[in-house]
């Protein structure tokens, strides 16, 4: 006869084991995230800045409500953690208590850029250089925990690294001519090259901290954000000169991927480029594609003024109801529905132009 206690034990055991059996081991031991508000998951919550999102309606569709994510639900990085087989989303560096660092950390900070001054008018932010310093601390801890440099280095080489910067260098620097001088110092092409030059040095630093499987998130069509459409009174069409500038950056970023992959002294590393731009344009130009997913592509779900993009999503503002039908969540950021498409198409490419030269699924198998 099975006692009641044994039955309870069985159910607890089985209930506990089930997710492990279904999900299996993550495809990589750890996942580290560097970036801006597209993937920030709370690192700005305690900073003195206007770039914060720990209030409703941000997180309205997220399991734990507002967390600091600039989205109604999950970000690109959240979906990727799920596809990679992690049980939990990768925690924010700011809230890490040390027990979780071996699975990876999210260092991303809203308003951050490649250039140090980018986003300063909004307040504090953790720039890419500072995010790299934070990672250096993590690496030192991992060396301690694993008991030596070689063990840590072997471990860190198996991890997957996401890097996504540049949006703020355009939005909150080059094209914000009332505050920043870069547009009078550089032509758009010079600016793209300057950014890539700085980016290269920063990414090589991450290589020196052990990164070997690295995805570089290309820029989306910033000229199509409700913010830029509203600022340019474009009547719901994308702002071409901004998109042209962003595409120049992407062009040079893709060349950087080739340069890294062809560099003999980086032979055991692989870099990939995620072509967010083309898949976003495809969704915006042809909203009825993607299983007729998007109905509204030129207005934010949460925000006010022209295209709902003049004033971004304010605390306790009532957002649109059919959030799965909107491409843009607020003046700058995409909805969970759009993030799901971009993350799934870069994890497993749907179209060969989605990623370069390989997708994330194949990168992490290397
Ligand atoms: C650390 O945080 C995790 C969740 O991220 C939690 O489960 C764990 O109990 C925490 N540990 C300590 C010692 O606070
Ligand atoms: C703005 O766009 C709408 C619909 O796309 C169109 O009906 C209207 O004529 C346009 N207005 C101007 C000033 O171009
Ligand atoms: C190749 O990588 C090394 C770092 O190991 C770097 O110093 C060098 O600048 C790179 N060369 C090119 C052509 O990118
Ligand atoms: C793949 O992407 C390219 C560039 O965005 C586009 O021209 C082409 O139609 C796409 N093909 C498919 C099958 O979606």
TrEMBL record:
<protein>
    <submittedName>
        <fullName>Uncharacterized protein</fullName>
    </submittedName>
</protein>
<dbReference type="GO" id="GO:0005576">
    <property type="term" value="C:extracellular region"/>
</dbReference>
<keyword id="KW-0443">Lipid metabolism</keyword>
<dbReference type="InterPro" id="IPR036514">
    <property type="entry name" value="SGNH_hydro_sf"/>
</dbReference>
<dbReference type="GO" id="GO:0016788">
    <property type="term" value="F:hydrolase activity, acting on ester bonds"/>
</dbReference>
<feature type="signal peptide">
    <location>
        <begin position="1"/>
        <end position="24"/>
    </location>
</feature>
<keyword id="KW-0732">Signal</keyword>
<keyword id="KW-0378">Hydrolase</keyword>
<dbReference type="InterPro" id="IPR035669">
    <property type="entry name" value="SGNH_plant_lipase-like"/>
</dbReference>
<dbReference type="Pfam" id="PF00657">
    <property type="entry name" value="Lipase_GDSL"/>
</dbReference>
<comment type="similarity">
    <text>Belongs to the 'GDSL' lipolytic enzyme family.</text>
</comment>
<keyword id="KW-0964">Secreted</keyword>
<dbReference type="GO" id="GO:0016042">
    <property type="term" value="P:lipid catabolic process"/>
</dbReference>
<dbReference type="InterPro" id="IPR001087">
    <property type="entry name" value="GDSL"/>
</dbReference>
<dbReference type="InterPro" id="IPR051238">
    <property type="entry name" value="GDSL_esterase/lipase"/>
</dbReference>
<keyword id="KW-0442">Lipid degradation</keyword>
